[in-house]
Amino acid sequence: MLAGKRILLIIGGGIAAFKSLELIRRLREQGATVTPVLTRAAEEFVTPLSASALAAEKVYRDLFDLTDEAEMGHIELSRAADLIVVAPATADLMARMAGGLANDLATTLLLATDKPVLIAPAMNVRMWEHPATQRNLATLLGDGIAIIGPNEGDMACGEYGPGRMAEPDEIVGAVSGALAQGPLAGRHVLVTSGPTHEPIDPVRYIANRSSGAQGTAIARALAARGAHVTFVTGPADVPPPAGVDVIRVATAAEMLEAVQQALPADCAVFAAAVADWRVSTASASKIKKKKGALPVLEFAENPDILAHVAGMKRGRPALVVGFAAETDDVAANATAKRLRKGCDWIVANDVSPETGIMGGDENAVTLITPDGSDDWPRMSKDQVANRLAGLIAEALG
Ligand code: C5P
Description:
Layout: E1 6-11, H1 17-29, E2 33-38, H2 48-55, H3 66-71, H4 74-80, E3 83-89, H5 91-99, H6 105-112, E4 117-121, H7 125-129, H8 131-142, E5 146-147, E6 151-154, E7 160-164, H9 168-179, E8 188-193, E9 198-199, E10 205-206, H10 213-224, E11 228-233, E12 245-248, H11 252-262, E13 267-270, E14 277-279, E15 299-301, H12 305-310, E16 319-326, H13 330-341, E17 345-350, E18 362-363, E19 365-369, E20 372-375, E21 379-380, H14 381-396
Parallel strand pairs: 1-2, 1-3, 3-4, 4-5, 8-11, 8-13, 11-12, 13-16, 16-17
Antiparallel strand pairs: 6-7, 9-10, 14-15, 17-19, 18-21, 19-20
Helix pairs in contact: 1-2, 1-9, 4-6, 5-8, 10-14
Bound molecules: cytidine-5'-monophosphate.
């Protein structure tokens, strides 16, 4: 996936630095050449020798190492790379990057580069949430720097929350996204995914069995072809892919709002299993259980997001793709649905329980286009995603 790519990996001084050694291995497995740069603080956590041994490359450490300057100046070093990855990006490194400082080799390289930069922040949750860090983050994003993570979870310091560095595999995914020069480079694709949760009261909701697996695979496949993907997801079972802009929503109304915010797009893929109805009598406080009295729920129709976008008079994406989860007469129902919703393509599948598709790893779909219907053999959701992404790339030319 990364054959021939040169990655300059700046390892910052944080406990997550140990994961950066694994990252070196994973990047090399994908065919990339990795040149490690350690900050002085990083050397407290990992040794230059282990980074060098895993990378099978010289490790750079000091700005004033004259031998290195004779061999390769810092300007050249920063530009010989296809991508600079900062992992872990500590609060201090982010602050220095945002401020444009160049007081060590790492920050000098970052200031001198003309190549894309991807950061994987890692720090204590309070440090991450501190207004200063959030201000620096906003500056860095404004400068066009890509970010992966941080993830939420238990921290080495015993606290819980956002601040854990993304896992090596996730960083590898983001690296390939950042480097993607595929057929969809420069295109914006919107993908909806997952179920929606429609509240009954503050603690109860109505949901469906969608895992979000197919939508996630599609977003990943589009990003791998170079698309800028906005991924609007309901509460799914699977984590969102790396290298896409994630917008999390709960209800259909929130999903519509997020979709409208994310437009314009060249293509929109509606893989979400949006609830058809919401509880119009949703209670602001928890409904009490009373002996012998059953609550009565009333419903209202949810907005049809796909039909709304497909019917836009102005700013409609050039290609609008819907899904049809059916249990009977799949192709006939989906063909009718394509016309009713006004979308260009429908990916139809049979979600009868015996197919094991809903929540499973495989899918058997029929693609409905204005030219007719095409039955695809049963294959993994990743394969469906790749085939669909390939067709989308062809259609967008
Ligand atoms: O009408 P039905 O739910 O079968 O249509 C499925 C397609 O419509 C999917 O692409 C789904 O994402 C989309 N949809 C939507 N908003 C709704 C209902 C469905 O975008 N409220």
